[in-house]
Specification:
The protein has 15 helices and eleven strands. The protein has 434 residues and is α/β, with parallel strands linked by helices. The protein folds into two domains: 177 residues, 3-Layer(aba) Sandwich (D-Maltodextrin-Binding Protein, domain 2), CATH 3.40.190; 181 residues, Periplasmic binding protein-like II (D-Maltodextrin-Binding Protein, domain 2, 3-Layer(aba) Sandwich). The longest helix is centred in the N-terminal third of the chain and has 34 residues.
Amino acid sequence: MSAPESGRDAPGTRRRAVRTVTVVASCLAVLAVAVVAGVHVLGSEPTVTLLANWTGRDARYFRQAVIEPFERENHIRVDYQGSSAESQVLSADVETGTPPDVVVLTGPGELADYAGRQRLEPLEGLIRREDFSESWATPLNGHVYWFPLKADLKSIVWYPARTRPGTLREVARRPGQWCLGMGSGATSGWPGTDWIEDILLQQYGPGTYESWARGRLPWQSRQVKRAWTTWGRLVGAGGPDDLVRRALKTEYQKASELVTTDPPQCTLEHQASFIRDLGPWKKADGRYTPSARLIPGATADGAWEVSGDLVALLRATPQAEKLIRHLASAGAQRAWSAKESGFSVHAGAQPSAGDGGAEWHLSLARTLLDPDAVHCFDASDAMPPQVRDAFAQATIDFLADPGERHLDELLKNLDTLSSPESLTWLSSVCDHGT
């Protein structure tokens, strides 16, 4: 057989090569189409960004109970960011022009500040006003800019099941028996603000409390000053170094660990309802009593300090508006409340014994929804951010040095910070029952 001519293929060889190239080219074309289609599908999936403060277990529960059902039903992906420093994260994002679509913050005062700077979108048409009372979805300049997704009760004191209720008053008079942790990273000091707010509410009632929380009652008033000094005596401010040092160095979520030591290093904790879900109080089979029963000079009847995680809209995209409607629905709020990570105050999400929740959880939920009770939003959270932050720092300073002159200086400084007319104060902090 003669060899093929140099530089040329035999006819059969040339046909096989052509067929091979054609097959490979066809496969590459199909693969390219598939890749482009896949990229198109992934790239076109609507996305909504959400910033909140839940991390760890709470973030997992939130995603399972609330976010994943929304994603499945609407075919919208939720890009969730959880941060314990969400106020700082949000501020930075807003300043750089890259805010999240939806945010969940604990402070209506902070949200009012953003609304005043025209950073928030009104929620008319997205939520039903009748689903939430004004103390939770407070109108501002004729609009509603936020609503609660999760709520907690604050006017309560936790104690171990082994403690006889009849001895609580006696125990409460011993400063060393109070579990107190003031640490909370960038927001350290807020457990102290909770104490002072609740004392003022229980000693003087909702009217005085609301006037102060709205910037109308001076910090140097006798009522507010009395609340500070009452707290100081209860927890031993300026007392034994080891007691004050323990409070200043302990993170708030670790304060209850002292209940389970052998022997216990403390017995009572003035803390919001969420603390019952942490390990130490579960181990101690924690019970609660209204704080009014243990606060000296308490005269209020059925007044409760409350807090909430509030949803607001920063970018009104179609997918963000759908998420707002979902988060405001009774079904979504009930689903997360069933996880016992928090409570809903949605009018249509009231729990019942048939829901299968723990009795302590159902009891707290009923108190939050009681139409005959007075619910007052956490005062510091309702204040302008700069006042809130100074208040928290002042509680740390006072705990170390509760002297009258020092306290007068702290309160005078807070009055100065509260005086500028440019600050935005809320029109309502308390509801007033039926």
